[in-house]
Amino acid sequence: MASQDELRSARLNKIAKLKDLNINPYPARASRDASIKNILDNFDRLSNAKIATTLVGRVHSLRGHGKILFADLQDEFSKIQLVLKFDTLGQDKFSIFKDLIDSGDFLQASGTLFKTEKGERSLGVSDFKLLTKSLIPLPDDWYGLEDMETRLRKRYVDLAVNPEVREMFRKKSVFWQTLRQFLAEKNFLEVETPVLENVPGGADAEPFVTHHNALDRNFYLRISLELPLKRLLVGGFEKVFEIGRIFRNEGIDTEHLQDYTQLEFYWAYADYNDMMKLVQEMYQKTIQKVTGGLETKFGDAIINWSGNWPKVKYFDLLSKEWGIDAQEAGVKDLYKLAEKFSLKLEKGLSRGKLLDQIYKKTIRPKMIQPQFLILPPVDIEPLAKRDEKNPNLVERFQVMAAGSELGKGFSELNDPEDQLERFKEQMKMRDQGDKEAQRLDKDFVEALEYGMPPTAGFGLSERLFAILMDKSVRETVLFPPMHLKEGGNCSVKSKLPEKLNIFRKFFKKS
Question: How far apart, in Å, do the first and last CA atoms of the chain sit?
């Protein structure tokens, strides 16, 4: 079997022969009458009329039988069979196609439409023009390739030969368009806030640092959209949203990337109960639009997104699952609980961190159907308003499904003194080694001192889309960041998504 270098060399030789024939292998212009999909949708009418048609696309599946050649021509949405006959094209044109055109080349083909004896819709080619000569052949059997890292690293090849992948990214575009349209129809104003921040805030995450040459100072790439958007409510806006990239310098797994797209929106004079109603409506309309229904597959389960999602209180859930009074459990109790579950947690964690980490490892993977997890402790959410009935809890909710958090919202904390004290507690955690604890943002506290109305906020990331597609988040990103491989190529070991493996093991046991 010829190596890639040998195949590339053979195609370079073909380029030289094309130039000797005064054929430009990379012309600037192309023309076509319609897309292949449009032609196929109107095939009977057009073929009966014997109207000359010009199509463009990439050549696939070349095959020949003496003085007749066959190939598939594929554009973005569809493909059609080309039939090239010696008697129609003449010796010169027929030989050029047979000897110098390869699978992977881009072609302009003109002719008339007809059906073969087997009923296959085809274009009888009377003329053609080479549009782009490819030097590296496309894989013959991409569907059988198990090397996911190669597909992610060379995504352009994956897209070129796998129409299902292209269709997934069209759905992703619909996903964001639907969310944007939903909020616009609810009179939310779309805004843009800076990517470079003085103080990274709005999330528990380690930021990236970059240097601004003109100002000769460092900035942080934003880890959230939250604090700038809430400043806009101080300024008088009542409904705002942003869809933008955020950057978190954290590990790679099936649910996390270093840079990704997030939607956040804020609604003045509303609380987290109002927001839960709006979020459920938004999710259901978006899922319906993207998938065509309200049931999606995840691993071995079917997730039903319809109806009203139940509200589950944080400590009620933990106490039931763990068999203890989770709300009264202290740090020592939680470390003992971790040992019971054979969890190895680092020493010196705060009570809130312990609750959160044990919950994520023992309970969250089992939360498969959509539900709202509400009222967690104040020490794990420094930006949410305290519950009026129990000030040790906060009015926060998370959208839980498929064993994952798929969005988070809360009644926003607008008490500047309370906010300052919580920032200080976070800074103590940073001093004790928690790199993801939030920083003190004095300007944001000052903004709250000017006054921010009662507000509900919510955020979701493209993780939701990945769950709807039953894939890891890296598979649903066009060009995900990957480890450098020797020689400068990127590589990440990726078999089946780890999250799905964990889920499948649990689901089969239960």
Answer: 49
CB contact at 8 A, 54 and 48:
no
Q: Distance between CA atoms of 91 and 81, rounded to whole angstroms? A: 21
How does residue 489 score in pLDDT terms, banded at 50, 70 and 90? very low
Which H helix or E strand runs over 276? helix 272-291
Distance CA 396, CA 277 (A): 14
What CATH number does the domain located at 157-303+402-414+421-509 have?
3.30.930.10
Go through the chain and tell me how many residues it has.
510
For the chain, the domains span 4-138, 157-303+402-414+421-509
Q: Residue type at 371?
A: Q
Q: What pTM value is reported for the model? A: 0.89
Q: What are phi and psi of 255, to 5 degrees?
A: -115, -10
pLDDT in tens, 170-209: 999 999 999 999 999 999 999 999 999 998 888 888 899 9
Residue 152's SS3 state is helix
CA-CA-CA-CA torsion for 231, 240, 385, 373, nearest 10 degrees?
-140
Angle at 405 between CA 401 and CA 406, to 5 degrees: 75
Tell me which of 507 and 159 has the higher pLDDT.
159
Q: pLDDT band at residue 464, thresholds of 50, 70 and 90?
A: very high
Residue with tokens 């060379």: 154
Dihedral of CA 292/293/296/302: which sign?
A: negative
Structure tokens at 471: 């894939």
Structure tokens at 423: 């920032």
Tokens of 172: 């992703």
Architecture field, domain 4-138: Beta Barrel (2.40)
The model's confidence at residue 146, banded by pLDDT at 50, 70 and 90, is: low
